[in-house]
């Protein structure tokens, strides 16, 4: 089934090495497996800590796939590409 696109939200806390690695790994994965079919929103909880509670973020970095539903959540720096692809239900291309 062809998706319209992936709406991804990455929660980080400042520009830590782990946060930067998570964003770099996510961009690389998306460019490889979802070229032109994704958006990434980065939310820095250092700037807006209230969002952590609202979105039930217990660890960072956390990636949330908002669309397509159902919502999926992955914690960590996203360095294990296979785990991220499975977690986001993206078939390896």
Structure in words:
- Residues 9-90 form the KaiB domain.
- It is a single chain.
- This protein has one domain: 3-Layer(aba) Sandwich (Glutaredoxin), CATH 3.40.30.
- β1 (6-12), α1 and β2 (38-44) form a beta-alpha-beta unit.
- The chain has helices at 17-33, 50-54, 81-87, and strands spanning 6-12, 38-44, 62-67, 72-75.
- The model has no long low-confidence stretch (mean pLDDT 91).
- It is an alpha+beta fold and 93 residues long.
- Strands 2-1-3-4 form a four-stranded mixed β-sheet, with helices on one face.
- It is built from three helices and four strands; from the N terminus they run βαβαββα.
Index terms:
alpha+beta, 4 strands, Circadian clock protein, Glutaredoxin, KaiB_domain, Thioredoxin-like_sf, single chain, 26% strand, 93 residues, KaiB-like
Walk me through the topology.
Blueprint: E1 6-12, H1 17-33, E2 38-44, H2 50-54, E3 62-67, E4 72-75, H3 81-87
Parallel strand pairs: 1-2
Antiparallel strand pairs: 1-3, 3-4
Protein name: Circadian clock protein
Organism: Bradyrhizobium oligotrophicum S58
Domain KaiB: 9-90
Helical stretch count?
3
How would you characterize the largest beta sheet? 4 strands, mixed
Instruction: Write down the overall mean pLDDT.
Output: 91
Instruction: Using the coordinates shown, work out and report the CATH topology.
Output: Glutaredoxin
């Amino acid at each position: 089934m062809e998706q319209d696109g992936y709406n991804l939200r990455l929660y980080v806390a400042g520009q830590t090495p782990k946060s930067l690695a998570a964003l770099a790994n996510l961009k690389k994965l998306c460019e490889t497996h979802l070229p032109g079919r994704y958006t990434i929103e980065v939310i820095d909880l250092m700037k807006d800590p209230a969002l952590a509670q609202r979105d039930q973020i217990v660890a960072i970095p956390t990636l949330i796939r908002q669309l397509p539903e159902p919502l999926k959540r992955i914690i960590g720096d996203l360095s294990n590409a296979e785990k991220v692809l499975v977690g986001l239900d993206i078939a390896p291309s």
